[in-house]
Structures are given as structure tokens and as C-alpha cells.
Amino acid sequence: MWSHRSGRLRAHGYNLQEQRDRWREREAALRKARREQHLVSKRLLRDSDLEEARDEFQNKPLEELEVLHLLRMSQRGTEKEKEKALISLRHSLQHPETQQTFIRLEGSIRTLIGLLTSSWASLQMEAARCLHELSHADQPNVAEACLPSTSYLLTYLSGHSADFIELCLYTLGNLAVESEAVRRQLLPQGIIPALALCIQSPHAAVLEALGYTLSQLLQANEAPKEIIPSVLDSAILPNMLRLLHPTPELGASVAVEFAWCLHYIICSQVNNPLLISRGALSTLGLLLMDLARAASGSVDTGLDLLACPVLRCFGNLLAEEGAADAGVRADFGDERIIVAMFILMEFFIQHQPSLVPECLWVLNNLTVKDPGLCTALLSLDLVAPLLQLLPISRVVRILVLTILCNIAEKGPFYCQRLWPGPLLPHLLDILTLSDSEVVGQSLELLQLLFVHQPEAAQDFLQHSGLQALEKHKEEIDLQERIQALQEVALGGSSLVPNALALP
Amino acid sequence: MQLPPGLLGRLGPGPAGSPSGSPPLPVLRHPASGAAPFRFSPLAQSLPRRHPLFEDGDVQRHAYLQDVITQVSQVPERPRVAAFGCHVAGCQQEFASLEAYEHHYRALHTHVCSVCRRSFPSAHLLDVHILEWHDSLFQLLAERQSMHQCLVEGCPDKFRSSRERKEHLVRAHRYPPDFRFDQPRKARGPSRLASGEEAMEVCPGEAPQPPLPQASELRTYSHRIPSTICFGQGATRGFKNAKKRSNQ
């Protein structure tokens, strides 16, 4: 199942340290872009022989006359000669300055479109590749210059070779993410119906490209109003859910793209109940179990690329009203999903630690209204592993404590399994921290424990719990709760009756 | 993180595994739990797209998109073949690889009109062409009702003339006014197709009624050639070309 279709990472010719430095720079740039809310990426298709052939065209920009010459050659002579000219043109279009020169030439795009729609398949392909290079450009005016070609690219989606369709799709995807102006042309031109037809294709490469293009459309700011409703109405939705699950034929890359599509749709909150009614939660839950089975092999196969969007889709759908229904949870709402989450967390600690908080968030949403899953967590002895996560980070601490609160608030039968145990030393440790949000969450947990399990209060006292609480007495946000806890522990509060009447 | 031994086994072998595990413990919430000054209440949280928790995963996703150059010709099992020619007789193209041939075939020999041999980029455009160019009753009906279908896949609108349709394409669908796959019938030069055809090639408004037997003959079979069939005669033209062929 895990034949992740390997694209090649760009060869930069840097040594390992340089590569690490470059990665850190890029990572910082990506984070900055995300925080400023303009994180946008495009995808590039290139022929394998291009990378090896270090053409002179790539390294320096062409003069206007040279570009003009290539354009003329692409319209004269034999098919082979035209093709050769187009290949050279394509190589040269990797250079941003040549791109600018090209689009400024009158009739240049028109010529490309003429070749794109000609009777020569090889010329169609080369013209499409030139357009694709232009679509990938950073400068908006270059990508927008490709707009006259979109009606043709869309037409070809419903009938052509798989390679050609794939190229058209990536080009359309790159253009779609460019600007709202571009999308205001693509949408009336029928991109959604075209994609709905194209999604029937059996080719993995086409489907991956389609998923990419769709994901670019779905990220648009105007998507919730202008795009997502028609996507939900179309044949895209059932196919998307089907394609979430990797198969030996299609590989995981296809699933990755559609998982991101689903994530954007769910976050938009346009119609999540519809997704639940179409079985999305079951699909996602069962998929997570499969991912856990693959993860237990402990080899890094890029599993996190799929797990990340799947976790997010699952977590957000779990927060919907209808998600707590027993009928909805029938397929996945048993101990296996808890097992899967822990196996995945163990895997991610090694290979992708940033996914641990996302797993914990999902666990929170799973355990909130589900006594069965809380019971499973206890009976599978997973409290101790959960506590082992506490040192990782602040966010993880808050999430772990919240999950424990979910369990403790369900009553004495649950609290009995939490205390005595490893919980006490960890809580005392947490009380030495100065982060008031983390400490506050631990106070909530203590109260739930004391209220349902009076022995816990005694135990706490005996281990110098009161002194640990003293440290935070001056914190405004914590004062009242600390005082209440101290009273409970010393037995002087009406919060805890002397005996709990049990049935 | 140290997981209890044997945990993987509790996952079961596959999707159809029956749910397992002990029944849930009884829930007995104490009325004071979470009461003021405490605030806890179990809450499933939905996170918006731009939530800080999602930052790391987003960064990884975009690094993936930017880093990976998806290789076009990368399918491992493409076999090598000696150069060969297209077997649609009259088509003289030669190929050195199966994918180049597949590309050529899909571009030129699918969605072919059996009457005039033009090939079209999609089934929809072929259907529109057959209806408007080779259906003898079309011109008649078009005088009375809107018969010209929109060329955009999925758009149900119909129009009384190709000019109205073009206006619709430009206005509603933002298509280019010179969209190359929208060939009005009048733009065709004189052609020597089947003699039966000639009657229909005449411009609407001045032609006599097409003889009925021909009409019914033309309507009893589909003009589309299934893509698995190759005709023995004549190279398929691109749709732009009006190269004459003797009729088959």
C-alpha cells in the first residue's frame, strides 16, 4: 500500500550542512508566510532529462530577438524542427527574465495556444509544457498571461492522453492559486464540472494532479461561498471519499491530495453534517487504523504526509454535533481507534513530533462524550504512556491534562483507575512550573479527582501537595481555585460530601 | 513513549474486524465537578484552518509541494519499443515510445466524426458537432426552438443560433471570442463529401427540405466511431482542416 510515488527532490548540489541551513531558512520563510496568511505554493512538472541536460538556456536569460527566433522556428519547418524549437523555448522559460520577455512579445501566447490546439500531438505537448513553466512563475503577471489558454486546458480534461491531462491539471492548479481574478475566469469556464468528469480517471498521476488542483481552488478565501458548495453538490465528493484510502494501484500520493482537499472543505464549515452522513467519519477512522498498522513497521515512508490532513479532518468532524451518535461511531468508535492513536503517537515522536499535539487534540475530541473510549484508555493501560508525553511541550501538557480531565469527570469508577498510580508524581511536578495555564488545568484535574475519590486528597496531602499549591497563591487566575482545593484537601469544604452514595 | 506490550494485536487485522473491548464503566458525575471557581467541562474543539496547532503540518505540506518535482515520464514499467507507425491507415506518424503513440492517438483518433473525419477534443464537442453539422432535422428544429447547446461541459443552456451561443460563451463563461473549438457551419468551405451530405451543407434558409429517406438513414445509427475501431481509409484530420476525402 505504501508505494508513495516518488518525485525527486530538487538536486541543489549542497553538502549536508548546507542543506540543513537551507532547510532552516526555508522553514523560517514558510512559517513567516503562514503567519502573515499568504502561504501559497505551486507545483512543477519537469521531464527527467531536463535536469541532467544543463542547457545553456537555463542559466542566462534570452534576448527578445532570440525568443522571437524560437517562436518563429516553432511555426516553420517539419514537425521535428518545430518541436525542437519549442523544447529550447521551454528550457529558456525557466529563467524569470526570459518569462517576462516572452509575455511582452506580441502574439507569443497566441502562438503557444495555436500549437496547443494543433493536430500534432508532440507540439501540443511541448506547447503545454511551455505554458506550464509560465504558470509556475513567481511573478503574477507571467502566470496571468496564461489566462487565454484556460478554456482549452479545461476542454482537454475530458479527453486526451493521461500525460497531457496531468500536465493541463497542474497548470490549471498553479493558475488557480494565483489570484481571485484568475479564479473568476476559471469558475465560469466550468472548472468544477470538468474536474467532476475527470475524477473518473483510473490513472494515478491524473488523480494526484486533480487533487492538487482542487486543493488549490479550495484554499481560496472566497471558497466557502463560491467554490465549496458546488464541489459538495457534484460528483467530486463521493469520489474524494473513495480516494482517501490508498490502494496498491493508486499509491498514497493520490490520497494525500484529497485528504488536504477534505481538510479545507471541513474547515470552511459549509456543510459538515453532509460529510458525516456520507460516512466520512467512518472512512477517516478506519483509515487511521490502517495508518497505525503501517506505522508499526517503524520505517519512515512518508506516512505523516497522509496522516496529517487525515487527523485534522477526523478531529474537526468529531467536534460536529452529530458526531457523538452511536450510529455514526459504529464502525470505528471502539478501543481500536484508541490503540491506533497511541501507535501513531509513538511513531510520530520519532519521525514527526509536530503531529503529536494533533493526535492529542483528536484524542480529546474522541473522549469528550464517550465513556466507552475513556474506559478503553484505562483498561489498555494507556494512562502511563500518556503521562510520559508531558515533558514534550506546553501545548502537549495542556492537552494531556485535558484528556485526563475528560476521563476523571465521568465519575468515581474512572477516578479509581487514575489514582493511585503514576499520576500523583506528575501532577506534583507540574505544580512546580510557572505556566499558569498548565497549572490551572492541573488544578481542574485535581478537583475532579478529589471530588470523586476522597483518598486522592489524602494522598495529595501526604505528599506535600499543600506546599506545592502555596507557590501559586499569588496568581490572580489561580487564587480562587487554589483556595478551594486547599479547603477540599483539608476536608473543610462543602464541595465534597463525607460519603458518596453509590448505587 | 513506552506502550504496553501486545497493543498492536488489539488493533486487529483489517477494516472489518469487529469492535472489541470491555463494556464502558458506569458514569456518575458528581454535581460539584467543574463547579465554580472551577471551570472544566469536556468540550470537543474544532480548529480553524489557521490555528497555531496546524502551523507545523502546513509548513511540511508546502515544503513537500515546493520541493518535489513530479516527474512526468517516471512510471517505472514503461517498456522500450522499436520505432513503429500509427496503424490508422493514411496516418504517417511514427513513434519511438508507447506513450508518444498513446498521446497521438488520443489527440487525433478519438472522438472522430464518422461522416467528415474531423476529430474533436471531447465527446461533448463531438456530439454537438454531429448534431449541428450532420443531423438533417437539426436546422429545421433550430428554427423553432433553441437547439444550439452550450459548449461548456455541464452547462444545460441552449440557444437559437450559434451566434447567440457564442455570446453566451463569452458573457457567461468568459470564453475567448475566437474559441477554436466553436466552428460555425458557415465558416466551412465547399466540400465534396457524400452526395447525400451536400444537401445539408447548404446554408439554412435557402435549402429545400432534405429528402426523408436520407434523414432517417442518418438518424438510425450513431456517427461516433468507437475509439477501438480504425477505418482503413484516410488520415484523420484535425478539426481545423477541411482536407477533402472521398467518402467511405
Structure write-up:
The complex is a heterodimer of chains A (503) and B (248). Chain A is built from 33 helices and 2 strands. Chain A has 503 residues and is mostly helical. Chain A starts with 7 loop residues before the first strand and ends in a 14-residue tail after the last helix. Residues 1-13, 50-54 and 492-503 of chain A have low confidence and may be disordered. Chain B has 248 residues and is mostly helical. Chain B is 27% helix and 5% strand. Chain B is built from 7 helices and 5 strands; from the N terminus they run αβββαααββααα. Chain B has helices spanning 55-67, 98-108, 123-134, 138-144, 162-171, 195-201, 212-219; strands at 68-71, 84-85, 94-95, 148-149, 158-159. Chain B has a two-stranded antiparallel ribbon. Chain B is elongated. The chains are: A mainly alpha (503), B mainly alpha (248). At the A-B interface, strand 1, helix 1, strand 2, helix 8 and helix 10 of A face helix 1, strand 1, helix 2 and helix 3 of B. Strand 2 of chain A pairs parallel with strand 1 of chain B, so a sheet runs across the interface. Chain A: This is Transmembrane and coiled-coil domain-containing protein 6.
